[in-house]
Amino acid sequence: MTTYNAYVPGEYARENIRISQTTLSDGRDFFYLDDDPDYVSGKKTRELTDPRVLANRYEPGIDGEGNPMPVQAPEMRQDPLTGDWIPMATARMNRPITAGPGATASGNPLAARKPGDPYQDGEVPDTDYNVVVFENRFPSMTRVPGVPDAVSYVDENPLWKSKPAVGRCEVVCFDPNETGLPADLPIKRMRTVVEAWAFRTAEISAIEGIEQIFPFENHGQEIGVSLAHPHGQIYSYPFIAPRLETELQHTQAYFDKNGSDLLTDLKKAEMDAGERIVLRNDTWIGYVPAAARWPLEVHVQPLRDDVRTLDELNDNERWGLAQMYSQLLKRGNAFFDTGDGRGMDLPYISAWHQAPVRDARRENYRLNLQFFSFRRSPNKIKYLAGSESGMAAWISDTTPEKIAARFHELGPIDISDVTE
Predict the structure, then answer these.
(1) What is the SS3 assignment for the chain?
(2) Model's pTM, two decimal places?
(3) Tell me, what is an example of a GO biological process annotation in this record (predicted)?
């Protein structure tokens, strides 16, 4: 039986989504989220036993000469110039790559198990699934039992702080179809993905040492995706990431000066201006921000003003998000005209900005999705060159109004009646 520390399923999830928990053979947490009625009712059950024989991820190993090899905990070091913590995850060099010219494996570890398939190192024990969530086998951050969360110093010099990177990294597989696109998922399946985000946000918030929970999606080879499968990730940091820290500084200063929260006022200002609104339903609004950086960028916020994190969304808002996100992905794929009227599989990053877990400034922050692509034409991408990479001083290749105008050509702003 699945037990929860903080997650409270709403009425829809209680009746239409079944969460089954197990542990993979190396000790990692694994969750099925089923929306198939046969599994929801209990008529069918999922395979919970991982047939692989994997070493426990926290047990010391043996090197090539037979000597004990201790578990290497991910490390992070602080940049004295900026205060940023930089995780250094050498284990990620060993992860399988199945997409793009640098592919190192022919199978798909995110696919359901295939009896008789020569690739038997997949992460999913069952031969089918709806949505699954599991801890990343090659995490950038993880807490190793017995390793103290203490500051040390590189070369014993107090300039360079170092700590174990005691965060958590999870993978969210949206659908078992290996060649499918997130944009093609039915809204019901996207609703299950939304529930997965809310479920994990609530549960991870209860884990010691976690300061920020960041669900995100990398999509497309140009983004650097190493596994071709509709999926996203959840990074849970033991610090507040630089982008959110900057936003928190501004939202708190705005509240101290004006007595209201900045993200709500930005949303209302965009709604008043109207020109850059690109999508709207009964519970969500999507707009191109007035100071957009990317050649394609849309921010999405709930219409309700006091939502800080994904798990605070009610059932109607979770359904509205599933509809909104589905339409955003479809229109993103249609944004660039390749000449055949079919658009393209848009490379994009979808980044959830949530209030931090413990920082007091969370009270004046609001949930928002920042969706963007660095593609600037059907056959060109935006390179982050000297000004952007060297100084973080952005130079836009277009205007927010032009981005919004293109979205307006792709369909109506009001999508309340869209059912697929």
Answers:
(1) CCCCCCCCCCHHHHHHCEEEEEECCCCCEEEEEECCHHHHHCCCCCCCCCCCCCCCCCCCEECCCCCEECCCCCEEEECCCCCCEEEECHHHHHCCCCCCCCCCCCCCCCCECCCCCCCCCCCECCCCCCEEEEECCCCCCCCCCCCCCCCEEHHHCCCCEEEECCCEEEEEECCCCCCCCHHHCCHHHHHHHHHHHHHHHHHHHCCCCCCEEEEEEEECHHHCCCCCCCEEEEEEECCCCHHHHHHHHHHHHHHHHHCCCHHHHHHHHHHHHCCCEEEECCCEEEECCCCCCCCEEEEEEECCCCCCCHHHCCHHHHHHHHHHHHHHHHHHHHCCCCCCCCCCCCCEEEEEECCCCCCHHHHHCCCEEEEEECEEECCEECCCCHHHHHHCCCCCCCCHHHHHHHHHHHCCCECCCCCC
(2) 0.94
(3) galactose catabolic process via UDP-galactose, Leloir pathway
Superfamily of domain 11-48+89-237: HIT-like (3.30.428.10)
Domain 242-410: give its CATH architecture.
2-Layer Sandwich (3.30)
Are the C-beta atoms of 191 and 319 separated by less than 8 Å? yes
Buried b (16+ CB within 10 A) or exposed e, 365-392: bbbbbbbbbbbbeeeeebeeeeeeeeee
In the chain, where the domains are located: 11-48+89-237, 242-410
Residue with tokens 């935006």: 382
Burial zone of 255 (CB within 10 Å; 0-12 exposed, 13-18 middle, 19+ buried): middle
Show which residues are catalytic.
Answer: 231
- Is the CB of residue 255 less than 8 Å from the CB of residue 261? yes
Six-digit token string for 36: 């198939």
Q: Which residues contact 157 (CB under 8 A, 6 or more apart)?
A: none
Q: What is the pLDDT of residues 5-60, one digit of tens each?
A: 999 999 999 999 999 999 999 999 999 999 999 999 999 999 999 988 888 988 87
